[in-house]
Amino acid sequence: MKYQKMYEADDKMISLIRDNYDLLQSLGSFGINLGFGDKTVQETCEDNKVDTYTFLAVVNFTANGDGERLRIGDGTPGLFESDERISVPTLLHYLEASHAYFLDFQLPYIRRELTESLDENDSLAHLILRFYDEYAHEIRRHMKYEQKTLFPYVESLLEGRPANDYNVETFSRHHGAADKKLRELKLLIIKYLPQDGLHNNQLTATLHDIYDNEEWLRQHALVEDYIFVPAIRRLEQTVKQNDVTKNISEMVFKDGIGQNPDALSDREKDVIIALVQGMSNKEIADHLCISTNTVITHRRNIARKLQIHSPAGLTIYAIVNGLVDISSVKI
Prior knowledge:
Elements: H1 13-19, H2 23-30, H3 41-47, H4 52-64, E1 70-72, E2 76-78, H5 88-117, H6 123-158, H7 176-192, H8 197-254, H9 266-276, H10 281-288, H11 292-306, H12 311-320
Helix pairs in contact: 2-5, 4-8, 5-6, 5-8, 6-7, 7-8, 8-12, 9-10, 9-11, 9-12, 10-11
């Protein structure tokens, strides 16, 4: 794999394009307009309201890697699986715009090229066009699925609304059927190349564009697999966690339980935290450097003040009132 430099926020945007002309289409998908002069990547992204870190993640990924460990943005090594700095709204806009570019412009453009390059009176030319139409249908079907199902699901997550009947793992990420048809199409064209110069040149140029589009689609799928899907997994977890907290809070306050945390002393709150962590009375006593009898007295006072007598109830109270983080508690 050819290795290139990793671009950073203070690099000139023009240097990215000069080194990687194929990033021109990515700029459009991010909503970045040309005419940025000598501005840096960060300045250009800020002018176009694009998250700089996410832009660099996609750019450096497509320029340098196929899902391997990368150095991006600030030079910190890490996998996208745990990278919380990725902006889901920026990625979603990028993928939606990429779909529009490929479906509305690139697929029809290649077909026009093929039509102009082939002899309409040749039966093999009709076969090549049929293969291309089948390939385009597979790509269109896959992308339409994402637009109809996946993207609205992500938008609901961004609005804090989890969907119980869908998750990102049900998302079909591969283009196997389309890849097979494209391979057959390329072989047909290579074997078919006519002997006359004009059609030969036209078909060769079209074949080159098909190979370029194949690479673009491969990189598009990798961005989905290695950047977008991990970001959605993290978003799902966050929304699920927030939803559990909300439900617990509504249940607790509906029943009138533990509505006055200020009524507890700091020591009583320490005892609750220890209880939630599963400590026994003796372990709490050793942990807080107090006697076991004092722990028992604190527990009685807590039960009297909060009207909560079970460990599960105290766990709910501790979560709702911010004494413990829900991520550290097994629900």
